[in-house]
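Question (not urgent): is this output format expected?
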Amino acid sequence: MSATQPSVIEVRGLVKSFGRKMVLRGIDMDVSAGETLALFGPNGAGKTTLIRILALLSKATAGHVRVGGIEASRAGAALRRYIGMVSHAPLVYDSLTGEENLQFFARMYDLNDAQQRIRHVLEQVGLTHRRRDPVRTYSRGMVQRLAIARAILHDPPILLLDEPDTGLDQQAAEMLHHLIRRLSGERRTIVLTTHNLERGLEWADRVALLVDGKIAFETPCAAISAGELRDAYRTIVRGHET
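Got this back:
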């Protein structure tokens, strides 16, 4: 956490269990205002569960989560307006056009400047020329871009991205890279998960490794190379497997 920036996301002693299965095992984490944090980890490490708790879509079994200074356990629906999320499911409608999808979500958020915001986010994600085409005609990368447009439509200060690069070809991944860097440049606080260590290192200010429900390693991106990160990842994951 930056010494000069306030913490927007605070996690202390976070535990999450599903029945007898413990998925998160006492996580402590801070994310500063305007910071981008990339979370890595093998399948089953608890990354999606953590993102869902930060998005106020799931409740912790124990511990404390504060988002924007508000205790998550006491947060109402209004706090969700300060959060944008892209999950594994894009949450857009195939039968509607890109523009119609955003009009639908603009009504949900009761945006006063809906058309102006829609034009702006479509331009940001590079979909202006396809705004009137049904989403079923979009490529995987275009659907992901529209999902990001949906997530930032209400201009949330916090953006949560759960493996936004999954299934993207190289060209779409490059587009996503530039978009995430642009969004982070707007002083938005971003937490993202990815299996691609190099991309995460390029996108983020800080990286953390989640293994077996715990933060096993974290460092500023400026302090580690891609090769060093790969070595640390392999060593730590293998250590937990033995």
